[in-house]
Specification:
Blueprint (H helix, E strand, L loop, with lengths): L1 H16 L2 H22 L5 H12 L4 H25 L7
Helix pairs in contact: 1-3, 2-3
C-alpha cells in the first residue's frame, strides 16, 4: 500500500531529524489530517485501517527509539532541575 510506504519513509526521516516532542506533535497532526480526510471524502469503512496503518508506521515502528530518546531527555531535564533547585536558597518547600 502506498500510504504505508509514504509514512514509513516519513517516520524514518523525521525520527532522525527531530527530537521526540517535535516528532510526537507531527504524529498527532498527521493522525488528525488522516481522520479529517476520511470525514471529508473517504468512506467511513476506511477510517480504522487507515489510522491503524499510520499509527503503525509513525509510532509502532519507532516506539523503542521514542522511549529511549524521550526518556533520556526527560531524565536529563529532571537532573538539571534538581541540581539547580538544590543550589537555590529559594527552592519550594511546602
Amino acid at each position: 500500500m502506498e500510504t504505508n510506504r509514504l509514512y514509513a519513509a516519513e517516520g524514518q526521516r523525521l525520527m532522525q531529524e527531530r527530537d521526540v516532542p517535535e516528532y510526537l506533535h507531527h504524529v498527532a497532526r498527521r493522525l488528525e489530517e488522516e481522520n479529517d480526510r476520511v470525514i471529508s471524502y473517504l468512506d467511513q469503512s476506511t477510517q480504522k485501517p487507515l489510522i491503524s496503518n499510520v499509527e503503525k508506521q509513525l509510532l509502532g515502528e519507532h516506539m523503542t527509539a521514542i522511549l529511549q530518546k524521550g526518556l533520556s531527555i526527560l531524565l536529563d531535564g529532571n537532573r538539571v532541575i534538581l541540581t539547580l533547585s538544590s543550589r537555590s536558597q529559594y527552592s519550594v518547600r511546602r
